[in-house]
Design a protein that fits this description.
The chain is an alpha/beta fold and 159 residues long. The protein is built from 5 helices and 5 strands.
């Protein structure tokens, strides 16, 4: 079973991959798509679609998990993120991949045990749980791996 976790963004899109065998994580990795700020918004959306499609073809996930929108003070950012999420969800649907969604609070609670955990606490726990070094990984990549871990923790007895 392969779980693909996605931390959506219109400039940086993180993705994390977990391989599960007999209810145990046997492999994990993460990376991020860093989209050039010089591209138009529409060009970045096309690139998200194309690159995510390549990731899907490479890892062939059985399930994908996407973090929901966190609404802060800037409504425009929420709308922009919504467009990126739409492209992500469409790409997953076109590839017929079962998709679940979790809020940032749910992810933090599942990984750290505290829905108000900081990004540093999440990164620390992801490293400890998976016994890997993520110091060179971007925060978006680490967050995506946390999203995948959330799915594993919530459904590990189904795998």
């Amino acid at each position: 079973m392969i779980i693909l976790g996605i931390d959506p963004g219109s400039y940086n899109l993180g993705y994390g991959v977990l391989e599960i065998e007999k209810r145990k994580i046997v492999a994990a990795g993460c990376d991020a798509l860093n989209l050039k700020k010089s591209l138009t918004f529409q060009e970045r959306l096309v690139l998200i679609h194309q690159e995510l499609d390549k990731i899907i073809q490479k890892y062939k996930p059985d399930i994908a998990v996407v973090e929901t929108i966190f609404y802060g003070k800037n409504i425009q950012s929420a709308f922009t993120l919504g467009h990126a999420r739409g492209v992500i969800l469409l790409t997953l649907a076109q590839n017929e991949i079962q998709t679940n969604e979790y809020s940032p609070r749910e992810v933090k609670k599942a990984v750290v045990g505290n829905g108000n955990a900081s990004k540093e606490q999440v990164k620390y726990m992801v490293q400890k749980i998976l016994n890997i070094n993520l110091t060179a990984s971007s925060q978006d990549a680490t967050d995506a791996l946390a999203v995948a871990l959330c799915e594993f923790n919530k459904n590990k007895f189904k795998f």
